[in-house]
Amino acid sequence: MTIEVQPIRERDLANLRRISIETFGATFGPYNAEADLQQHYQRAYNVDQLRRELLNPESQFFFAKIDDEIAGYLKTNVGDAQSEPMGAQVLEVERIYVRPSFQRRGVGTCLIKQAEQLAYAAHKTQIWLGVWENNKKAQHFYQTQGFKQVGDHRFQLGKSEQRDLILMKPVNNISKG
């Protein structure tokens, strides 16, 4: 099985929107009110918002594909595009989502490696991400990838305020190959 990682283009917006809603709902749907989820989808995953993010030069999006089927996606940010001001020497992994039918097949690891390569190539010193405090499965995955908790921040999901743990990993532990 080969996982192919490719940049997401503007022509891919419909697929990006679809997979964003699908994967977010699969991950967080069972634990949140439907009204909060719908509000989030309308705010964060409407086509105009996704287009703005996709065209931002400080953000990058990538699909992971297996047998030409979208298995997951990655969104990274640097500079002012970061969801929290972490500085110029840091790359944020804002979104890394894998469709349930492709989990435990190396897709998440492949996407983290893509983020690491971007950070290395851009001479960043750290990679950071936020993970929901109740998503123990994702926390464990990130720990196996070398991330450590350094703080937390609040995430608004509709009317529900939630806590994300901020995890960080030094880039100097990453090789370019």
Write a concise keyword list for the protein shown above.
alpha+beta; 7-stranded mixed β-sheet; 177 residues
In words, what does this structure look like?
By secondary structure, this protein is an alpha+beta fold. It is 34% helix and 33% strand. The chain has 5 helices and 7 strands; from the N terminus they run βαααβββαβαββ. A 7-stranded mixed β-sheet has the order 1-2-3-4-5-7-6, with helices on both faces. The longest helix is centred in the first third of the chain and has 16 residues, at 13-28.
| Low-confidence runs | none
Main pleated-sheet profile: 7 strands, mixed
Order of SSEs, N→C?
Answer: EHHHEEEHEHEE
Form type: globular
Distance between the termini: 20 Å
Alpha carbon gyration radius: 15 Å
Give the strand content. Answer: 25-35%
What's the quaternary structure here? Answer: single chain
Helix content class: 25-40%
In brief, what are we looking at here?
With 177 residues, the protein is α+β, with helices and mostly antiparallel strands.
